[in-house]
Amino acid sequence: MKQFFATCLLVLGYWTSWSQVDFDAKVSKNSLGLNEKLRIDFTMNADGDNFSPPNFESCGFRVVGGPSQSVSQSWINGRSSFNKSYTYVLMPLQKGALTIKQASIEINGQTYKTAPIKVTVTNAVEIPKDPNDAPTVRADDNLYLVADISKTSPYINEPITVVYKLYFSFNIGITNWRELNKPKYNNFWSQNIDIKQLQAEEGLYKGERYRYVVLRKTVLYPQKSGKLEIEPLSLDIDVQVPTNRRNFWGQTLLTNDSKRVSAGSRVITVKALPENGKPFDFSGAVGSFDFQAIPSRTTLQAGESLDINVKVSGTGNLKLFTLPKPVVPGSIEMYDPVHDEKVSTPLSGMTGRISDKYTLIPSYKGSYTIKPLEFSYFDLKTQRYKTLKSAPIELTILDGPGGNTTAAPIAQGNDAKSNTTINQPFAYIKQKTQLQPIATDPFMGSGRFYTFLVLPWLALPFLMIWRRKKEARSRDVVGNKMRKSSQLARKFLAEAKKNQNNKEAFYVSLERALHNFLKAKLHLETSDLSKHHISDLLQARNVDKETLDEFIRLLESCEFARYAPSSEGGIQQDYDRAEQLITNIEKQLGG
Predict the structure, then answer these.
(1) Is the dihedral of CA 47, 48, 53, 54 positive or negative?
(2) Highest mean pLDDT among 331-340, 465-474, 554-563, 571-580
(3) E-assigned strands of 330-383?
(4) Looking at residue 197, what DSSP letter applies?
(5) For residue 492, how many C-alpha atoms fall within 13 Å in the half-sphere facing its CB?
(6) Is pLDDT above 90 for 363?
(7) Residue 52: enclosing H or E segment and its boundaries?
(8) Residues 102, 40: contact at Cβ < 8 Å?
(9) Residue 440, helix vs strand vs coil
(10) Of the candidates 325, 315, 327, which has an alpha carbon nearest to the alpha carbon of residue 285?
(11) What value does the mean pLDDT of the chain take?
């Protein structure tokens, strides 16, 4: 029995030693120069899944080789051994004491991690080289990054283009490149143009033939005059250059090299727009445009609505100026415009159209004239200001309460009936007639007769109440604005839901929905929609701080998300946040 237990313990010990999982990280050296390479191996004695290396760049290294994977398995005296490794070759990005963080892997359902490794990086050291391995061509003399600028002395809001080209000689090949510093366009409105695929072309640089690739295209609109600096684009580029070695067939062997290149900073001298002849209503439009102000209809009843679409189309800085606003009589209610843009930005600059659609609701009958709208812009071809004018808009309101002669003149007809109606209201009724007896009608004196006789008198109080409510509602300017703003909030929220595949249109609609919701609930005007004022009003109405802060953050997100990268999930999340916040604030404000 003792021998049996001893045998079991021995087998258990062997099984335990075999089942012990080891997962380690080893480096080729713990101290190296800034120009040396480091090898790191992640080894394990059991096969696993979901290997996750550390983020080497955040640790101060970049990967120049790997990962390479090796697996070995053997049987010795009835025992199996297994070894698997992932190998990387790293180049340090900075000096100092650096730490390579943990790697992880899943083995038999459990997660194992390596220990962090500390590495000291010193100044660059001299590395002895085999003269046969020395490159015959230096990357420094055969690789250039250039920023081609279409115009260095534009007007304010005149488009210029910056095209970044990487020139390289026919003797070297580019294997990889990384951005070290992105260009900065302070005091410029900028739009990057997508390049779907890099394509090598041939061209001249400094009088010699080179190959080149276009890495980036950007359209810029300067926003102030004076000398403006474009900060440079910098790249770290890996290349292959020829050596003195040759292979078995006599072909030249290549070696890896790297170089950091910069396009250099560029200075743009921006001219101010001339003051001579500048219209007083000039809003900054520069280019070549057409202008229209079109009503949806000109004849309607009081209380009905019409739209006036103010539209500018053409080529120029379409996203960077405001459209003129119609001036309407005081008896016509005009609501905030719905802005729409259909603008594309090719390399030549913005082109397309923008529009503001205003909703108008007249309160009184009469004839009204909306004065012509004027739109001014600076024409780059003639270098002069031009002013375009729309046609006047004549509105005829057929029915509704009468107004005074200054605010809401009553329409005067041309026919005799309308004239007599105003001067002698009952003159058109015949005052003499010939009566003739009719046959006895069984309807007279019946129950139906008395019912129809009394019914109008019973309905009269209800009709008077309904009319008073209608008149009160027509006079309730604030209430009408609130109701219209609430309708617009629902409309823009629905538009945002439809535009979830269009980031810019989505956030424009969502921001307008939030603004109109606030205008409806807090009795605000457009000029009062500052975040500080909104915060004070919601706090005064006892909206809890968490909801208030979340609402302000969402407004800020709408402002900036149009120009920042965002995912489909982020857009859906912002829409859900908006719905939830509107519901919460409505509950806290009492519906």
Answers:
(1) negative
(2) 331-340
(3) 332-334, 338-344, 351-362, 366-370, 374-379
(4) S
(5) 25
(6) no
(7) strand 49-52
(8) no
(9) coil
(10) 315
(11) 79
Q: Which residues pair with 145 in a beta bridge?
A: 166
Identify which has the larger pLDDT, 88 or 434: 88
Position 441 pLDDT exceeds 70? no
Report which DSSP code applies to 109.
T
Q: Decide which of 519 and 565 is more confident.
A: 519
- For residue 458, pLDDT over 60 is answered with yes
> How deeply is 198 buried, as exposed, middle or buried, from its count of CB atoms within 10 A (0-12, 13-18, 19+)?
exposed
Which span out of 278-292, 437-451, 523-537 was modeled with the highest average pLDDT? 278-292
Q: Longest Cα pair distance anywhere in the chain, in angstroms?
A: 141
What values do phi and psi take at 458, rounded to 5?
-70, -35
Let me know: does 65 contact 88? Beta carbons within 8 Å: yes
Strands (DSSP E) contained in 231-337 are 234-246, 252-262, 266-270, 287-295, 299-300, 306-316, 332-334
Rg (CA), the chain: 39
User: What single DSSP character describes residue 45?
Assistant: S
Q: Say whether pLDDT at 6 is over 60.
A: no
Output phi, psi for 120, to 5 deg.
Answer: -100, 125
d(CA 500, CA 451): 59
* Crossing angle between the packed helical segments 503-522 and 568-589, to the nearest 10 degrees: 0
Position with higher pLDDT, 100 vs 514: 100
Report which residue type is found at 545.
Answer: K
**Burial of 276 by CB count in 10 Å (0-12 exposed, 13-18 middle, 19+ buried)?**
exposed
- pLDDT of 446 over the 50 cut: yes
> Of 323, 406, 399, 333, nearest to 364 (Cα)?
399
**Planar angle of CA 471, 477, 481, nearest 5 degrees:** 125
Report the C-alpha gap between 357 and 307 in whole angstroms.
6
Q: Which residues pair with 501 in a beta bridge?
A: none
Query: What is the distance between the alpha carbons of residues 552 and 537, in angstroms, rounded to a whole number?
Result: 12
Q: Are 127 and 150 in contact (CB under 8 A)?
A: no
Q: Which of 340-354, 485-499, 538-552 has the lowest mean pLDDT?
A: 485-499
Strands 49-52 and 104-107: antiparallel
Residue 10 phi, psi (nearest 5): -65, -45
In this structure, which amino acid lies at residue 81?
S
Q: Pairing state of beta strands 299-300 and 393-397? A: parallel
* Alpha carbon separation from 447 to 72, 141, 451 (Å, rounded): 109, 112, 6
C-alpha distances out from residue 305 to 324, 333, 340, 577, Å: 21, 9, 20, 32
Give the number of other Cβ atoms within 10 Å of residue 91's Cβ.
19
| Least reliable range by pLDDT among 67-71, 93-97, 362-366, 532-536 | 532-536
Q: Which two tokens stand for residue 302?
A: 């009081």
Q: Which of 308, 425, 419 is nearest to 370 (CA)?
A: 308
Residue 485 clears pLDDT 80, i.e. is over it: no
- Contact at 8 Å (CB) between 535 and 552? yes
Structure tokens at 30: 């713990």
pLDDT for 432: 67
CA distance 298 to 368: 10
Task: Note whether 553 and 531 are within 8 A (CB).
Answer: no
